[in-house]
Amino acid sequence: MPSLGSAEAAAALGALLRLRRDGGEPRTELAGPLNDVLDALGLLDVVDTLTPDEAAALLGLVESFLRQAVDLIANPDRITWNHTDRAILTAQGVLSSLLVPIFQDFVIPTLGDRLGDRLQNAGASFLDVGTGVGELAIAMCRAWPALRVLGIDPWEPALVIARENIVAAGMAARISLRRTAAEDLQQADEHDLAWVPTFFIPSSVLERVIDRVHGALRLGGYALFGLYVRRDDPVATALADLRTVRQGGALCAPQEMGALLERAGFSDVNVLYNVAWASPVLFVVGRRGTS
């Protein structure tokens, strides 16, 4: 029962975030109970200070987790990312776009070869593996106005939405989409930075993906391999494992991922995570050498 209550509390948070995003207010009868739930969670004051854009971003996080939780009940045998529900695909895309401020403010400034400066230059390129509905690609272009992006994904239902989103955002000249799996990527020396969400990549092709991404980077370029955070809380750890398997991904500890990167030729391999980011994702980072 406490777990069911937690789900309902998350839904109450999502409801107020949606209202904040849309500039609305809860119905009179609901305002008191909704506010009481958020107040009991210690979140009411935080929600009240959010801008509509911040509320939309956090709503994506809540929606993605809750919609996938409902899908777990409806489709308990799913072990791959083959959703066709537009709401689930969109919510996951909005969730991925939340990584961009973390890239910009915390991750990229710690990396060498003046990567932040490189991304500001004309001709800078970002490889978005598993681009989904394109929200991460769009957010990267907004953060770095000179950046061009190649988004790859094998799942056509997501790419259909991505094409719409990219046109609506006015980014069609800067973002290219390609329907291909990461293990089939055929590129060399083209990108300054790559994002690889390993929680969508099966263990059977993970090493091949790492090798292909390494070859696709320019000399001195970096790749960020994302894993779900496993905390000391055993429930949170078990849920992260379940989420990874449900999405078709490889169960791999950060240290194991680092070893795979080094085997593929990456240098300066490191694990980056800070609880202050309030993110469910950590990064195993590797650099393609300059020679």
Describe this structure in words.
There is one protein chain. Helix content is 51%, strand content 16%. It has 291 residues and is α/β, with parallel strands linked by helices. The chain folds into two domains: 2-74, no CATH class; 86-287, Rossmann fold, CATH 3.40.50.150. A seven-stranded mixed sheet has the order 3-2-1-4-5-7-6, with helices on both faces. Helix 1 (2-22) runs antiparallel to helix 4 (52-74), helix 4 crosses helix 5 and helix 6 (99-107) packs parallel to helix 8 (135-143). The termini are far apart. 40% of the residues are buried.
How many strands, which pairing sense, and closed or not: the largest β-sheet? 7 strands, mixed
Give the rounded overall mean pLDDT.
93
Cα gyration radius (Å): 19 Å
What is the distance, rounded to the nearest whole angstrom, between the alpha carbons of the first and last residues? 58 Å
Q: Name the beta content range.
A: 15-25%
Strand-and-helix sequence, N→C? Answer: HHHHHHHEHEHEEHEHHEE
**Uncertain stretches of 5 or more adjacent residues:** none
What is the fourth-level CATH superfamily of the largest domain?
A: Vaccinia Virus protein VP39
Number of domains: 2
